[in-house]
Amino acid sequence: MTTNNYTEYLLTNRNHNAGLLLLPAKNITLSHPVGSSVSLISLTAATVLLNFGVLIILFVEKHLRTPFNVYIIVLLSSNILYVGLNNILMVLAPHGHWWIGGQACTLRIYCRYIVVTITIHSHVLISINRAWALFWPISYRHHHTTTVAWLLSLGMVMYVHVCQLPALILDGLYYRVSTEKDCRFNSKAQNAWATFSTVWVFDMPKVFILVCYPFLLWKFIHVRRRPVPADKRVADARRSMDLLKRRDTVVRPFVLLTMFTASAAVCWIPIMVYYILADLVASYKSDTLETALILLYSIQPVLDPVFFCLGVSNLHNYIVVFCQTKFGIRKLSTSNLRKTRSECEMDIQFIGKRNLSQG
């Protein structure tokens, strides 16, 4: 397999986030395997329900609309958009049986090359956000607002379109192959862009996420070891509140980043390494291994909302309270979930007033 053929193979047959069982087109003469369709529908349903459920909670609960969660909203939205549109089109028209026309093909190519890229770069934004918070905490607290988070996300979306959209427009106008049997981007006609897209847009962000994490981990450990200053008169209450603030602003977001990075390493890197080795060593290729790695790659958008629920305290508590209330185990209110910090603040005010009266 030459470099040019590898690039075409990579771009036309690799699923960049959540499609299932996209085997090489040259090996596909299949009709419509029922097992693949059932697996695809199940994966699509789980992804859409989980991501959409977390999105609803984020929009309903005002205290969850933090600047950091803006990146999560963009990530979950791109997961829903890609998995919902692309996988439905795959079920309706599998490889070798594309019968729904050129406009649907354009939509599928847009999802595979732009929406998926937005998903990948959303993970990059989360890593950059944590680097900002850990290395420049004062600047982060003063300048990172919800508006800034939305502007950064909008800038990321525009950057993705600038990198990907021109080639897709040219493909639709001049280079699109017949869509009677299959729907694919004609990478042979734009080989230079195909190589750039594969390396810079799809693979380098994943490498950046993994390379960036050790530096963030080192800084996180350094921040955690920093002593908590407190006046002797209000030592216990002040220390408790400061620890709570540090947990909400540093610890939990970093735990979430750790889970995202681990899932990216487990789900993304194996198939990326496999395709590189398959290009270098002809005997390395294995359809069984490739299918297993593609399935592993497809789990990523299902894990995103699950890890977010586990990593964000308020959302995790909200879901726990909802389940307890719904199933009649124990009825709680969401105000009780934030009682600890309120008690700490009241303790500080009480101790301060007592010291003033005694002085």
Assigned CATH superfamily: Rhodopsin 7-helix transmembrane proteins
What are the segments in which pLDDT stays under 50 over at least 5 consecutive residues?
1-33, 232-246, 330-359
Roughly what fraction of the amino acids lie in strands?
Answer: under 5%
CATH architecture name: Up-down Bundle
What's a concise summary of this model?
The protein is mainly alpha-helical. The protein has helices at residues 3-13, 34-60, 67-92, 102-135, 137-143, 146-175, 191-225, 235-267, 269-280, 287-298, 300-311, 313-326, 339-358.
Please explain how this structure is put together.
The protein has helices at 3-13, 34-60, 67-92, 102-135, 137-143, 146-175, 191-225, 235-267, 269-280, 287-298, 300-311, 313-326, 339-358. It has 359 residues and is mainly α. It has a single domain, classed as Up-down Bundle (Rhopdopsin 7-helix transmembrane proteins), CATH 1.20.1070.10. Helix 8 runs antiparallel to helix 11. It is globular. 31% of the residues are buried.
